[in-house]
Each structure stands twice: as C-alpha cells, then as structure tokens.
Amino acid sequence: GRREYNSVWFWDRRGLGTVRLFGPGELERDLGPTKLGPDALSFNSALWRERLGSTSRAVKVALLDQKLVAGIGNLYASEILHVAGIDPHRTADSLRSAEVKRLAAAVRSVLEMAIQHEGSTLGDGTYRNALNQSGRYQNEHRVYMRDGESCSTCGRGRVARIVQAQRSTFFCTKCQK
Predict the structure, then answer these.
(1) Is 106 a residue whose pLDDT tops 70?
(2) Burial, 147: exposed, middle or buried (Cβ in 10 Å; 0-12, 13-18, 19+)?
(3) 128 falls within a domain
(4) 73 domain residue, yes or no
(5) What are 109-133's pLDDT values in tens digits?
(6) Which CATH number do you get for residue 51?
(7) What total of structural domains would you count in the chain?
(8) What DSSP line would sit under 24-39, residue for residue?
(9) Are 57 and 77 in contact (CB under 8 A)?
(10) Residue 155 pairs with which residues in a beta bridge?
C-alpha cells in the first residue's frame, strides 16, 4: 500500500507559542466565537466601531485581545496605530467615527503589506517562513523598535516606547493623537 508521511515543524525561540492537534469538529468547538474573535482582515468600519466601542481599555491593548479581533500581534498593533494616527493611550471607546475608519484602513494596509513581505524578522531571528527565509516587513516598520528616532512620517516627533499590558508599545509623540 501507499504510505503517507506528514510532518509538523514548530520553532518557538521566544517560548510564547503552543501546538495542539485537533480532530474533526474539535477546532470549531475549542476555538469558536467565544474564544477567538473574527479575523482582523474580515472587519469593516461598522464591525470595528461595534467591537472597539464595547471596551474602555487602551486601544492598543484592545487590538491585542484575540477574543475581540483575531490576528493582530504586538508589533503590528503599534504599526497600525501609527498609520492611523491614533495615540495608543486612547481608550478604544473614545475613538470617533473618522478615527475608526482610519483604523480599519490601517489594519488592512499594514496586515496586507506584512503578508506581502512575508512577515517581520527582527534582530533575534525568531521569525522564518516555511522555507527558512527571513521576512522583509521589518524594513517597512515606521515605529516598532525605533524608540528615540525621529518620526519618519511627520518629521517633527520622536518615537517613544511605553509598556502596555506587559508589552512594548511604540508611537510618535507628535502625529499620533
């Protein structure tokens, strides 16, 4: 008979990940809508307004909540807020309609560009694609890991680093309001 060989490779130098194998139907049960929100790229402005309007947490912290919205990690949350011109200190429910629209557009543009560039490989080399190649989106970062540098967007502010929910947040002190 024919033999099939399958393999799974998992490299987690930072120790933040886990691997679980699911049988038929188990994934939907264990990671259904109560545990994992809709994918960030499936959102429109109305869904963003609904989701963000329901929490008074800082907008950066809300973006990291995988139950609220799935698929936005720490690095991308800082970049998204920068592109949208939103201060990460702001509470999610304080965003005005125009800001939510800018945020929705920024999520799409940042995540699509990151996918196109096959992710971000930082100095520690922890991210590699399936062919063991580095991503290229790190070359596009505007604020992430650029604390102390002048802002490449407005040229007037400096990139600052703060800690929110035990994670580093990077933002421009001038162009993010």
Answers:
(1) yes
(2) middle
(3) no
(4) yes
(5) 999 999 999 899 887 777 877 788 8
(6) 1.10.8.50
(7) 1
(8) TTHHHHHTSTTTS--B
(9) no
(10) none
